[in-house]
Design brief:
Number of strands of chain B: 10
Strand content of chain A: 25-35%
Helix content of chain A: 25-40%
Radius of gyration of chain B: 33 Å
Number of domains of chain A: 2
CATH topology of the largest domain in chain A: Rossmann fold
Structural class of chain A: alpha/beta
Helix content of chain B: 55-70%
Oligomer: heterodimer
Low-confidence stretches of chain B: 45-50, 118-151, 285-315
CATH superfamily of the largest domain in chain A: P-loop containing nucleotide triphosphate hydrolases
Mean pLDDT of chain B: 74
Order of helices and strands of chain A: EEEHEEHEHHHEHEHEEHEHEEEEHEH
Largest sheet of chain B: 5 strands, mixed
Low-confidence stretches of chain A: none
Shape of chain B: elongated
Order of helices and strands of chain B: HHEHEHEEHHEHEHEEEHHEHHHHHHHH
CATH class of the largest domain in chain A: Alpha Beta
Mean pLDDT of chain A: 89
Strand order of the largest sheet of chain B: 5-1-6-9-10
Number of domains of chain B: 2
Number of helices of chain A: 11
Number of strands of chain A: 16
Strand order of the largest sheet of chain A: 6-7-8-3-9-10
Shape of chain A: elongated
Largest interface: A-B, 31 and 22 residues
Chain lengths: 334, 518
């Protein structure tokens, strides 16, 4: 298979007003093959968008380079950009213009014009099922419809590579499903390479051929889902959602010491949602156990006897969330 | 390349004019403000042309008069050679000294409100125009019952005699006089008809020669006064032409009768007394000149008053006089805001990620910058132009007739508008390029614009010209005011505006380029 995207030691450093620097991306090395959906998975602030911005030529790398179809994004940016489409997280459309006018305008930015552009706009409006609303202003569209036009605008030049930066943010489940299906369609029917960033483990799991997990500007794991889950072994995850209460360290020691199969325990205390709010996210107790369902009754009994108020329990088989948790000690939502 | 720049520019234009609130701010506000100022200080259109008195006029008379002998060209061969002397020149001996006709003297005397003497300076006939009422109405109106005299010529003009035409023109240019009336050499010869005898020894009038055109050199700063002087001079010259025609007819009849008598041997040549003819002439022109009190007699004539392009000068209705500077100032003032906030939309584009989407496309950033700036330049240009057109419409409605308040030189209006647009856009690019955040633009943009407006006199009070010259509004308003007065001496304004615009544009574009770095 042909390499579509390759990055070598991609690094980005920003200066703070006080003169200090912050390293947003710390030497990322990636290799994405043609025709695959490659996901960058990580919590907010992990460096996903900065990485994708450097690969797409939006932001100049402090160090390193990326090639798109063999063209350097820093030295042959125009050639590289011709091979890519871009679907940002934001609705990057002019609200005063209609769907058709938006697509036509961005098409001209790719050097398209005349009949070819009109035909392509027609195809894309059909593709995102908005042909009947093509002449309506964008600001009259629902969130999901805007997302669809946003995706269409990234496909105008029929690119072999398309970047999608969290394209399902802020939309309802129905439209989200539609977006995910569209992404799969691009790969399966149009043989497009998709570089997809998300902080939602479920999306990465559903879509990706390969996943790179990012945290604090670094890729901490990369591979197929099977390869990644093997990194955390065969352990199940038992997730206990509990109220805003503290648990004594002795309880954890007792569970780990006396319950068969339990290998380790992580506790995320209750979290204040924002500084001005009195609302807290519930505490999460995660217990890794080789036979989770077998261990569950005894753990419940221990927690009950310690007076812990349990709100919900979930038994999860090994997944990307577990990988992230295992590698960072934090949940993806953190 | 150009297609992408134009696409960005057109998008800017389209998005701007689709925003109803913005359009309201760009057009309705300055239009309403200018109209209110125009109505408040210029009246609603019922007022007449303002009263004028003591219009300063320089009068230069270079006319040397016309000799009667020169007016009649004798034939080479006279009939009846046995009876007449061979020497044809002896037929009409020269008139006595001081009997030469001088219409220039008379025209000057009327303008200077001095007593008019007869055609011959030695004659005693004549009249005093200060004793004659002067109605500033044309002939058709002056006969009407409703016509009322508005005053004498002496009240209207404050004329000063001068010796040199150049001196008089310079004095007009300096603003000392509203106009200079320059009576050229040969004026009398031109007014008085020329005659020649034909083969049958019948005297015939000849076509007038070239030259002898009275010049009204008008002050471009005082178009109404200059126009009044022009009208007066045209009326007078017409009257002189009538005198010339009457004189010619008398002369023709007399000369033919004389020639016939000589030819038939009825008149003894030695007994001919030409002084009697001169006396007739004096009586004739003194009578003919009497109606000069009623001066305005427009119409075709074979001697016209030469002048600077007064035809294009507006009559200067009070509303138009006020709305020109006020409207121009408001148009430029609001264009400055469009210049700043149009460019500032780059921040909005960045926030909405449309800028990023463009940058990710295979379009060099310099094209995006060029398209953005071109779009804004066109928007500002159209804004000023539409406001000028709308103000023309408002003025025409208020005045009650179609009025080109900005003058008839459309090409010049477009050039001045372009210069101002470049300046306003350049200032916007410069300010946005200089500011580090959109908040700084929001603060400093209006501050700079309002300061320029205060300096440029937008708010109704004028600062000393030395201070006002620091504002591009001053240069723009001054250029538009000159255009409205059919003046074309705004080269300096264009140099200042274009120079300032280009400089701000280049420095601003260089600074602004950083805003495209993400």
């Amino acid at each position: 298979m042909q390499t579509m995207v390759e990055t070598r030691n991609l690094r980005k450093t920003y200066s703070r007003p006080d003169g200090s620097t912050i390293e947003a991306v710390k030497g990322v090395n990636l290799e994405i093959q043609q025709g695959e959906i490659f996901s960058l998975l990580g919590p907010n602030g992990a460096g996903k968008t900065t990485t994708i911005s450097m690969i797409s030529g939006l932001v100049e790398p402090t160090e390193g380079d990326a090639t798109i179809g063999g063209f350097s994004i820093t030295k042959q940016s125009m050639e590289a950009k011709r091979l890519m489409g871009f679907v940002p997280q934001e609705i990057a459309l002019y609200p005063e213009l209609s769907a058709r006018q938006n697509l036509a305008f961005f098409g001209r930015m790719y050097g398209m014009g005349g009949k070819a552009l009109r035909r392509r706009v027609d195809e894309l409006l059909e593709f995102v099922d908005l042909a009947d609303r093509q002449n309506d202003r964008i600001d009259t569209f629902s969130g999901g419809m805007k997302r669809r036009v946003n995706i269409a605008a990234g496909l105008l030049n029929s690119p072999p590579l398309v970047y999608m930066d969290e394209p399902t943010v802020g939309i309802d489940p129905q439209n989200r499903r539609r977006v995910l299906d569209t992404v799969k369609l691009l790969r399966d029917e149009h043989n497009m390479t998709v570089l997809y960033t998300t902080h939602l483990m479920e999306e990465a799991q559903e879509l990706s051929d390969r996943v790179a997990i990012m945290d604090h500007g670094e890729i901490i794991a990369m591979g197929t889902q099977d390869e990644l889950t093997q990194q955390v072994g065969e352990e199940d995850r038992l997730e206990f959602t509990i109220g805003a209460q503290e648990i004594a360290e002795a309880v954890f020691e007792r569970i780990q010491g006396e319950t068969p199969g339990v290998t380790r325990i992580l506790f995320n205390p209750p979290e204040q949602l924002d500084e001005d709010s009195s609302v807290f996210a519930p505490a999460l107790l995660t217990v890794f156990a080789k036979r989770g369902r077998t261990a569950l009754p005894q753990i419940l009994q221990e927690l009950d006897s310690a007076g812990v108020e349990i709100q919900s329990v979930a038994v999860r088989e090994p997944d990307l969330e577990a990988v992230f948790l295992a590698l960072t000690g934090r949940a993806l939502r953190d | 390349m150009m297609r992408k720049i134009l696409a960005v520019a057109f998008k800017e234009l389209y998005v701007t004019f689709r925003d109803r609130n913005l359009v309201l701010l760009m057009f309705a506000t300055p239009l309403v403000l200018s109209t209110i100022i125009g109505m408040a200080f210029g009246g609603s259109g019922d007022s007449e042309v303002p009263d004028f008195a003591d219009i300063a006029v320089a009068v230069v008379n270079l006319d040397e008069g016309a000799d009667l002998q020169e007016m009649i060209n004798l034939p080479d061969q006279l009939p009846n050679p046995d009876t007449f002397p061979i020497d044809a020149a002896a037929l009409f001996p020269p008139l006595p000294d001081g009997v030469a006709l001088n219409f220039g003297d008379q025209l000057a005397a009327i303008l200077l409100s001095q007593p008019v003497e007869g055609a011959g300076t030695g004659a005693i006939g004549g009249f005093d125009p200060t004793e004659i009422g002067c109605s500033l109405l044309d002939e058709s109106e002056s006969g009407g019952a409703a016509a009322a005299p508005l005053g004498s010529l002496d009240d209207l003009l404050d004329a000063t005699a001068m010796d040199s035409a150049d001196q008089a023109r310079a004095a007009v240019d300096s603003g000392e006089f509203a106009a200079a009336v320059i009576i050229p050499p040969g004026f009398s010869s031109q007014v008085a008809p020329q005659f020649a005898f034909d083969d049958d020894f019948i005297i015939r009038a000849q076509a007038p020669g070239e030259g002898g055109i009275v010049e009204v050199y008008a002050s471009s700063g005082r178009p109404i006064s200059a126009r009044i002087v022009h009208s007066i001079v045209v009326g007078m010259v017409n009257q002189f032409v009538r005198v010339g025609v009457a004189f010619g007819a008398t002369l023709e009849t007399s000369a033919n009768a004389l020639a016939g008598g000589i030819a038939r041997g009825e008149i003894e040549l030695g007994a001919v007394d030409l002084s009697a003819l001169s006396a007739d002439l004096q009586e004739l022109d003194a009578t003919a000149l009497e109606p000069l009190g009623c001066l305005i007699t427009p119409g075709a004539n074979n001697i016209s008053a030469a002048q600077r392009p007064l035809e294009a000068i507006q009559e200067g209705h009070p509303f138009a006089r006020v709305i020109v500077p006020a409207g121009a100032a408001q148009a430029v003032f609001f264009a400055l805001f469009t210049g700043v906030f149009g460019i500032q939309s780059i921040y909005q584009e960045r926030r909405n990620w449309t800028l990023q989407r463009m940058i990710v496309s295979p379009t060099p950033r310099i094209f995006l910058l060029a398209g953005k700036l071109l779009g804004n330049l066109v928007i500002v240009f159209l804004q000023i132009l539409i406001l000028l057109a709308a103000l023309t419409l408002v003025a025409s409605l208020v005045i009650g007739q179609p009025t080109l308040v900005w003058g008839g030189n459309i090409a010049a209006v477009l050039v001045v508008t372009l210069a101002l647009s470049l300046c306003a856009t350049g200032l916007g690019v410069f300010l946005v390029g200089l500011a580090k955040t959109p908040e700084q633009v929001n603060l400093f943009g209006p501050m700079v614009n309002i300061s320029l407006a205060v300096l440029g006199g937008t708010f109704g009070f004028a600062l000393p010209e030395q201070a006002a010259r620091f504002s591009l509004i001053y240069w723009g308003v001054d250029a538009f005011t000159q255009l409205a007065n059919a003046q074309t001496d705004f080269t300096l304004n264009l140099i200042v505006l274009f120079g300032q615009g280009v400089l701000l544009f280049l420095v601003g574009a260089w600074l602004f380029k950083r805003r495209l770095d993400l």
